[in-house]
Specification:
564 residues; alpha+beta; five-stranded antiparallel β-sheet; 17 helices; flat
Length: 564
C-alpha cells in the first residue's frame, strides 16, 4: 500500500514533466510545419534564395539551438541556417528521421544520435515539404543539440525529492535523451531490458515498481508517456528516501513512549504535592510577579528554612535583573545618540507584527515632522522608488534567509518635497526565535545623494565629450563592438561614417575658439537629430565625428541605400 501511495505522487510528477516535454515538442513541430508551408517549390533549385528564406523566416534559435536545414529527396542538405554549421552537401539518407518522413509523408521526431556534423548528441525533428499535388519534394529538419542549453534543461536541472532523478527515454532506440545526470545522455538501456520494470516501461506501460539502477541503488520508479513521440519520462526515488515515513513513524512511537514516561513522572509528582504546599504558595506569588506589566518587587522572607533561602535567592535575582535593565537602557540611549549624532536615520523593525520605529532623524532626512509618518512597514515601502523596490526587497529576503551577513541596499526614497533622495540602507537581524525565524531587525539610513551625483558626473566625463555631450572614443568602441555582435548574430549590415569639418581651423583663427565651440555644438545637435535612436553619433577629435548606423537590413543594396 505504501508503494502504491507513493507511486500515485511519483506518476503525477513524471506526468507533469511529460506534459512539459509534450508541449515543447508540439511547439517545435508547429514551427517547422509553418516554415515548410512557406517553402516555394521554385526556390528548391535556387540555393541562395532558399538560404535567405530560412534565414528570414526560420524558427527562433531557442526552438532549435543547432539550426534548421532542407534535404532534397536524395537526402542531401541543400540549405542550412545558421551558416556556421556546415551541413550543405552532407548526405542524411541513412538517418531514420529522413527515411520515416519519406516513407510516411508525416512529421517525425527522430531518434537521438550523434550528429554527423556536430559530433555531439542531437535530437532531429523533421517535416515533409510537399508540392501542390501532395508529392514530397523536400524534407525540412530542425536539430536540437543535447549538449547545449535546450528545453530539456528543465528536466536536467530537476530532482525528484532530495536524491531522486528524472530520465527521458526513447522507446524505439532504448536511449536516454535527457537525465538529471547529464553524463547519461544517449546511454543505451537495452542491456537493462531483462529488468521486468524496465521492460514494461519500454513496452509502453506507465507502471510503478522497484528496480536497481546502474549505480547499484535500489529505487522506486514510475513512468509517464510522452504523446508526440514514442518516449517516456521516468521518475526514480531511492528506496531509503521513499520509505523515510516509516522511520518517522518509529520516531513518533519513541516520542509517545517518552510522553508516557513524562506522564508517569507527573503522576508521581502529584502524589507528593501535599508535602510541597508551602513551596507552592511561594511559587504562586512568584508567578504573579511574572505577569506582564507587574513591577518586580522583593518577596517577604517568612521562614528561614529551605523555602526562605529560595525566596532570598529570588529577591537577589530581582535586584540583579533591575540593575541589568537599567544598564541596558543606558546603553541603548548611548547607541541611539551616537547614530543620530552622525546624521544617520535609525529604523527598528518588529517582524512579528510588521511595525517599524522610525527615528526623528530618519523622518527629518526626508523632510517630515515627527508626527507625519506612522509605524507601519508600508510607510517605508511606498516611499521607495518603484524601479528600486524589487531589488531592495530581494536584498532583504536574502538576508532573512541567511544568504548575506548584513542587509545592504542603495536606493531612492521620495521626500516630502516630491524629490528623490539616494540613501544607503543597512540592517541586520538581531533576534530570532527557537525555529530561527526572524523577530527583529535594526538598521540605518545614510544620505548618499552627493556621492551618487559625483559618480554620475564621473561617469559622464568618462564616456562623453564635455563640449557636445556626444559619446567619446571610449564609448564609441563599446557600442561598435555591440553593433558588430548584433550584426553577426542577426545577419544584418551596419554602417560606419567618418565626418570632419572643412575650413574649421580658419574659423577658429578668425573668430576665436568660442565661436568654434558654438559651431561644434550645433553640428553635434544636427547630427543627433538626423539619425535614429538606435544609431550613435560620437566626437573623436577636434572637428571629427563618427556616425554608427545599426540594423540596416540583410540586403547589401538596401543597406547601402538606407545608409546614404
Amino acid at each position: 500500500r505504501m508503494i502504491e501511495g507513493i507511486g500515485v505522487q511519483q506518476r503525477a510528477a513524471a506526468g507533469l514533466m511529460a506534459t512539459y516535454v509534450d508541449e515543447n515538442l508540439e511547439q517545435r513541430l508547429a514551427a517547422l510545419q509553418r516554415l515548410g508551408s512557406r517553402v516555394d517549390v521554385q526556390k528548391l533549385s535556387d540555393t541562395v534564395a532558399l538560404q535567405a528564406e530560412l534565414r528570414d523566416h526560420g524558427p527562433d534559435e531557442r526552438l532549435f539551438n543547432s539550426g534548421v536545414f532542407v534535404l532534397n529527396p536524395d537526402g542531401v542538405a541543400i540549405a542550412n541556417v545558421p551558416d556556421d554549421v556546415a551541413r550543405v552537401g552532407v548526405n542524411y539518407e541513412d538517418r531514420d528521421f529522413f527515411q520515416r518522413v519519406m516513407a510516411s509523408g508525416r512529421p517525425v521526431i527522430g531518434q537521438p544520435v550523434f550528429g554527423q556534423v556536430l559530433q555531439t548528441p542531437v535530437l532531429p525533428i523533421a517535416v515533409p515539404v510537399k508540392d501542390a499535388a501532395g508529392n514530397i519534394i523536400a524534407v525540412l529538419a530542425g536539430i536540437i543539440d543535447l549538449s547545449r542549453p535546450n528545453f530539456f534543461d528543465k528536466l536536467t536541472h530537476s530532482r525528484y525529492g532530495e536524491t531522486g532523478y528524472f530520465l527521458l527515454v526513447d522507446r524505439s532506440s532504448h536511449k536516454i535523451i535527457a537525465s538529471t545526470d547529464r553524463s547519461r545522455i544517449l546511454e543505451d538501456q537495452s542491456p537493462r531490458r531483462s529488468d521486468p520494470l524496465v521492460a514494461s516501461h519500454v513496452a509502453g506501460e506507465d507502471a510503478t515498481g522497484l528496480s536497481v539502477n546502474p549505480m547499484g541503488v535500489e529505487v522506486l520508479v514510475s513512468a509517464a508517456s510522452v504523446s508526440p513521440a514514442n518516449w517516456f519520462v521516468a521518475a526514480a526515488l531511492p528506496v531509503r528516501e521513499a520509505f523515510a515515513p516509516i522511520d518517522a513513524a518509529e520516531s513518533r512511537i519513541l516520542m509517545m513512549a517518552l510522553v508516557l514516561g513524562l506522564l508517569t513522572i507527573l503522576l508521581t509528582w502529584l502524589g507528593i504535592r501535599r508535602e510541597l504546599k508551602p513551596l507552592q504558595s511561594t511559587l504562586g506569588r512568584v508567578a504573579a510577579l511574572m505577569m506582564p506589566g507587574t513591577k518586580l518587587t522583593p518577596l517577604p522572607v517568612e521562614r528561614s528554612n529551605e523555602i526562605g533561602q529560595l525566596v532570598m535567592g529570588f529577591n537577589h535575582l530581582i535586584e540583579e535583573l533591575a540593575d541589568r535593565e537599567q544598564r541596558l537602557k543606558e546603553s541603548e540611549f548611548r547607541w541611539m545618540f551616537a547614530i543620530e549624532g552622525s546624521g544617520n536615520g535609525l529604523w527598528d523593525w518588529n517582524m512579528q507584527n510588521d511595525t517599524v520605529y522610525f527615528s526623528r532623524q530618519w523622518k527629518a532626512m526626508l523632510g517630515f515632522a515627527e508626527h507625519e509618518i506612522g509605524d507601519s512597514l508600508e510607510e517605508w515601502k511606498r516611499r521607495v522608488h518603484p524601479d528600486d523596490l524589487e531589488t531592495t526587497l530581494t536584498a532583504i529576503k536574502k538576508h532573512i534567509e541567511g544568504e548575506t551577513y548584513v542587509y545592504e541596499s542603495e536606493h531612492r526614497v521620495i521626500c516630502k518635497s516630491g524629490e528623490y533622495l539616494w540613501v544607503l540602507d543597512r540592517g541586520v537581524i538581531v533576534n530570532r526565535d527557537a525555529q530561527q525565524r526572524p523577530l527583529r531587525m535594526i538598521g540605518t539610513h545614510t544620505d548618499i545623494s552627493k556621492r551618487k551625483a559625483m559618480e554620475e558626473q564621473v561617469q559622464q566625463f568618462a564616456f562623453h565629450d564635455p563640449l557636445t555631450g556626444l559619446p567619446n572614443r571610449r564609448l564609441l568602441h563599446d557600442r561598435f563592438d555591440q553593433v558588430m555582435r548584433a550584426s553577426k548574430r542577426g545577419g544584418n549590415y551596419c554602417g560606419l561614417m567618418l565626418l570632419d569639418l572643412d575650413n574649421f581651423k580658419p574659423l577658429n583663427d578668425q573668430h576665436g575658439h568660442a565661436a568654434g565651440d558654438i559651431l561644434l555644438a550645433e553640428v553635434a545637435e544636427r547630427l543627433r537629430k538626423a539619425v535614429r535612436e538606435t544609431d550613435t553619433v560620437a566626437r573623436i577629435g577636434g572637428d571629427e565625428f563618427v556616425v554608427l548606423l545599426a540594423q540596416l537590413g540583410s540586403s547589401h543594396e538596401s543597406a547601402s541605400r538606407h545608409a546614404l
